[in-house]
Amino acid sequence: MSESHQLGRRTVLGAIMAVPAVIATGSMARALGVSQSLAGSATAPSADDVGKVMASLRFGMFVHFNPSSLVGREISWGRNAARPGEGPGNQFRDPSVKTDPVYDAAYRSFLPETDWATKLAATAKAAGMTYLVFTTKHHDGYPNFRADNVSRSFYADYADTSLGRSGRDLTQEIADAARSAGLKLGFYYSPRDWTQPDYGRGDYATYHSYMMEHLRQLLTQYGKVDFLWYDSIPYADRKPFNPPELLTVPRELQPGILINDRAYSSMGFQPVPQELAGDFDTPEGKVGAFNLTRPWESCMSITPDAWSWQSGQRMSDFPAVLRSLASTAVGDGSLLLNVPPTKTGYLEDRVLSVLSQVGDWMGSNKQTIIGTRGGPYRSGDAGGATYTGSTIYLHITGDLRPVKLRLPALKATVKSITTLDGRPVTFSAAAQGDLFLDLAGITKTDSDLVLQLAVDRPMSPEFVTDRPISWNTSEAMVYEHTSYAGAGVSLPLGSYTSARLSALGAGFGISSIRVPRGYRVLGYPGDDFTGTPWTFIADAPDVGPANDVIKSLKVTFDPAAYFRLVNVTDGLLLDSGGNVANGSDLKQWEPGGSPNLQWQAEELGNGYYKLVNRANGMAADGWGATGFGSPARQSAWNGSANQQWQITDRGSGRYSVANRTSGLVLDGGGQVPSGSVTKQWEWGTSTNLLWTFESVG
């Protein structure tokens, strides 16, 4: 893989002439096992076709393995020598060092056990994986196959090494093993090669021919190849790599092959145009974002700090792997999980143990991952969903909370909700169509709790909501009967007259109330907030004397509570900076427990709030009739309109915070670094203008 990420050319005409004429024909496609939906065409497949193929697979094994495992160093990056063609941040500390006497000699003793590939493929199959991607060549240039042009490489004496004398071909072994296990097959190939002489001189045009010979061999001598996984060209102009040849030639040789997005990535040297971006994206070391329009695959290592085997590496446990798997599926992505074989080709026992647990879970949950699409609910902190046909699988990957789980309204009717083993889950519908799930009594034994929803029609992308599932931590719930029984309606922050309550479906007599932490509910015996209110700052299964008497109410923040205000775009918190001068700018800071980041929100009785910092006691201040982009400040409370803020619920627990004087709202400014000034802007649709209020316990 890449620590921070094109093909060559000698005589392209001769290379093309060497391709058998039958390669692109339907008969050859059938002989190679190409799926008929993508077979017979050397053109780029549609995003929809790619998405369907990847949905049918969803979970694969990535195998980073070569002589680096003999010395227990990171593949390629553990080689202590120059790295030609790398960007400024990836250079070795001393570029004058051309070889590594330890790393560069390891290949001469490299000889995995003869059954390594069959054991590895069997492990992948047992873990519920459906495909396998093998490193045929990494940046160190070692060919994990019997390269016909090895004499042009750094490893010209390959025939005299242990593996060379054995007559074995590791790529052939893993290809045969994968197919025997019923797995789809992918080849990883790095277009960078730090040890190849032409590449080292920067003669990429000549190097291109060397590389193309590799690719033609890999894509014609090893049977059906389903994926080609590039890992970026050098930090240089892409012209010597003959765009779009890295995409067109593989498609001619292997009709239906899917190619990742790194064929013409130069690690930031120049942007990659859409026509060279391949078939799917590859977020590395993290779960990708929810995306239904562009297929994607997260590549993550079970040893997060290393791709190849190294002794004593930190390793992800079963709950972490399961969360990654579920989180990719609900985002409509795939997980390519890397495992690092030791020098024998075998996996460590601790890796096998985790994969065995994954396999046990997949034994009863596979249908919720493989063959599903992400949605129809957006994924969020609580989890997400997958679907197939008229069945939705809700994956709750976050911690269970003592509140109800909110599912955004669908353009469909949910008929029932159960656990996978058939136990019913109680749920109620709000007037707005959202569903509230009561998970009391439901235990979570794994890091992913799966619930099954039966709906009245088959799901498709058009049903996907624009809101995530979420815990109902920002809205009160009022119920018709005591003990939260009968009709229930959710009420976000705001004021509710009798008419408004009736319009929302809460015209019944209120008998019980759930109050989110850090909030309060004021219930008035008269309409329009008249009379002495009853105050509720915690759940009330029976409102007592207020039973059936409340005619209007307010949901406000509890003035005694403190909150962290988190910007939706950048995830940074509103920050006072502590003991600062009157008039100092409000900034944003990374999450933490400092009182500088905690605020009281006190409702003033006029629909506006004052926001008071816990550390310095000063109030957030808009500083008058300012223009767009002006900083928000802080000063001692004086009661002016500059210090009053209208906090408006914008759905899913997100709020805008607008100044009374200027009407401008607090603005995070986008993806900004810690310490950036919080500004003010006119209200619009940007998430820069939205904040969540996290109650501080």
Report what the structure shows.
The protein is elongated. The strands form 11 sheets. Strands 5-4-3-2-1-7-6 form a 7-stranded parallel sheet. Strands 8-9-10-15-12 form a 5-stranded antiparallel sheet, with helices on one face. The chain folds into 4 domains: 12-368, TIM Barrel (Alpha-Beta Barrel); 375-471, Golgi alpha-mannosidase II (Immunoglobulin-like, Sandwich); 475-554, Gamma-B Crystallin, domain 1 (Sandwich); 563-695, Trefoil (Acidic Fibroblast Growth Factor, subunit A) (Trefoil). It is an alpha+beta fold and 697 residues long.
CATH architecture of the largest domain: Alpha-Beta Barrel
Gyration radius over CA: 30 Å
Measured as a percent range, the helix fraction is: 10-25%
Global mean pLDDT: 91
Strand order of the largest sheet: 5-4-3-2-1-7-6
Largest sheet: 7 strands, parallel
Features of the shown structure:
single chain, 697 residues, alpha+beta, TIM Barrel, Immunoglobulin-like, Gamma-B Crystallin, domain 1, 7-stranded parallel sheet, 5-stranded antiparallel sheet, 13 helices, 17% helix, disordered N terminus
